[in-house]
Amino acid sequence: MKEKERSSDKIENELIRSIVAGVYSVGSTLPPERELAKEFGVGRPTIREVLQRLGRGGWITGRKRMPAVVNDYWRNGNLTTLVNIIENHHTLTDEFIMYLLELRSSLAPTYIRDAVTFNQPKVVALLANLEQLEDSAESYAAFDWNLQKRCAGLAVNPIFLLILNSFDSIYLDMAKRYFSIKEHRLLSFDFYHGLLKAALKGDVMEAERLSTTTMAKSLEIWKDRKK
């Protein structure tokens, strides 16, 4: 039984990677069960189990006695789809980084505002040693992720941190790509200093405003990079 589970997990991940990479494009069909079973060297019941999982995850739509159709997973997927994408993060693109920046733009101003509102001294402590921040992609990635997660944890709504925790396995690698650009580091450095000043004053509205404008700017310059 365990061997079957390992095989089905492996096949599921392989098919997800193929879909994300475009080997099986949106609207196309997967090979029939018989062909997949032969390709992966397993029985058809194992393939059937994998296809059922992919269906529950929003990756495909199964059809009776016909090959499954590949869904537009960004539109038809669900939280399981997102977890699947994260688990197979080596296939992620710059486009996915843009999506995460958009998500951060929506969430960060609220949890940073709440963190300053309810835990002002702790936010100040997070930003107290900015002068020790090294001018490198690695240092900025680690500092930024720690700041984001700690502020989310200091907010009232626990769901903020749960959402960020979902990205633990991929954030640092993606952030290193983002912070490899000098302009991005400078923007964040100014933001950290501005947030520190706002936190010291207990200026909740300024903390929220800074977060909103900085997140919007970071998304804008990432999009411009792709033009």
TrEMBL record:
The keyword Cell inner membrane does not apply. It comes from the Bacteria. CDD domains: WHTH_GntR. Gene3D superfamilies: GntR ligand-binding domain-like, Winged helix-like DNA-binding domain superfamily/Winged helix DNA-binding domain. Keywords: DNA-binding, Transcription, Transcription regulation. SMART domains: HTH_GNTR (SM00345). It holds the Pfam family FadR_C. Residues 5-73 form the HTH gntR-type domain. This is GntR family transcriptional regulator.
